From TrEMBL:
Family: Belongs to the TRAFAC class TrmE-Era-EngA-EngB-Septin-like GTPase superfamily. Septin GTPase family.
Span list, region Disordered: 332-369
Name of the featured protein: Septin
Gene behind this protein: SEPTIN9
Gene Ontology terms describing biological process: cell division
């Protein structure tokens, strides 16, 4: 078997074999000390390329803040909910609605299933009390679906991931301070999902107004104990801490979205044309869209997914399994077929809990813990 594995490795194409990175490094041909452990990186890459990736992003904010346009700009595709509707005129819903649409995107052989979750109706009513509850319920429902798949006896080899990995929260460009609705939403939702706040349509603010608004928002986030992504307690090492500190200093990102292309200095760029010139979306001197895109896609996408699975989903999973155990214990205490032993422990009769399957369910849940 070892000979077969080595033969397979040496028959790999030259493009997949490890190559020396520097001039002073030697090739592995004829190197008797070389084992080939570094080839696991190529194995992981090939497996990931076959499976593809999943990324679920939610956009929350009032109507007219450019949510659909920004998402289209991020992925340079028509991926928003409104982009696929035949009728662009849409009635404002009376209550919060959750609408999601999935796309298969491919770039340089990398396939990704992108799901965009929109929340039309959020903040558009006169009375916005508890308007975050449908969004909270949707996020928890996706955790519940994933949990039920995990505790099944015959689990799927790869569980479909519909959990919300990131929530982009759009703040109106008022230039003053956060609204009570903004504070309450982020305070509650930051405990269950990764929140990235952005200042929508930042081109309506001057540079001085923008800087003052960003500083005010950061102070209000700290004062209200709102921990947005990237969270300090999840920094893995000093290098990550240094990178994330720079990101935290820029939050919230002042962004401008546009899916229109214009010719500027001989280049085709995404931007917004005004009487005074063209606002270039990807120019960091004009707005901070490029920083947001790098955070969500180019540098921190996998970390966002990891925190969703290891922190937010894990918190939900532990709470649900504890609730199941409490419910099971209460059921045992009320069941006359379960009698106490001499030492005070419960003794289960053989035929007591088999018909309704409660014992089997408890055993499966406990095993997963």
């Amino acid at each position: 078997q070892i000979k077969a594995q080595r033969l397979l490795y040496f028959n790999m194409s030259e493009s997949t074999k490890p190559h020396p990175q520097g001039k002073g490094e030697k090739t592995h041909v004829g190197d008797s000390s070389y084992v080939g452990i570094d080839a696991i990186l190529e194995q992981m890459r090939r497996k990931a390329m076959k499976q593809g990736f999943e990324f679920n992003i939610m956009v929350v904010g009032q109507s007219g803040l450019g949510k659909s346009t920004l998402v289209n700009t991020l992925f340079k595709s028509k991926v928003s909910r409104k982009s696929v509707q035949p009728n662009p005129e849409e009635r404002i819903p009376k209550t919060i609605e959750i609408k999601s649409i999935s796309h298969d995107i491919e770039e340089k052989g990398v396939r990704m299933k992108l799901t965009v979750i929109d929340t039309p109706g959020f903040g558009d009513q006169i009375n916005n009390e508890n308007c975050w509850q449908p969004i909270m319920k949707f996020i928890n429902d996706q955790y519940e679906v994933y949990l039920q798949e995990e505790i099944n006896i015959n689990r799927k080899k790869r569980i479909p991931d519909s959990r919300v990995h990131c929530c982009i929260y759009f703040i109106p460009p008022t230039g003053h301070c956060l609204r009570p609705l903004d504070v309450e939403f982020m305070r509650r939702l930051s405990k269950v999902v990764n929140i990235v706040p952005v200042i929508a349509k930042a081109d309506t603010l001057t540079l001085e107004e923008r800087d003052y608004f960003k500083q005010t928002i950061r102070e209000e986030l700290r004062a209200n104990g709102i921990d947005v992504y990237p969270q300090k307690e999840f920094d893995e090492d000093a290098e990550d801490r240094m990178i994330n500190d720079k990101i935290r200093e820029m939050i919230p990102f002042a962004v401008v979205g546009s899916d229109q292309e214009y010719q500027v200095n001989g280049k085709r760029i995404l931007g917004r044309k005004t009487k005074w010139g063209t606002i270039e979306v990807e120019n960091i001197a004009h707005c901070e869209f490029a920083y947001l895109r790098d955070l969500l896609i180019r540098t921190h996408m996998q970390n966002i997914k990891d925190i969703t699975g290891s922190i937010h989903y894990e918190t939900y999973r532990v709470r649900r399994l504890n609730e199941s155990n409490i419910h099971f214990s209460a059921h045992l205490s009320d069941d006359p077929a379960v009698e106490p032993k001499a030492n005070g422990q419960l003794e289960e009769q053989p035929s007591a809990l088999q018909p309704n399957g409660v014992a089997a369910q408890h055993e499966a849940l406990s095993h997963e813990m």
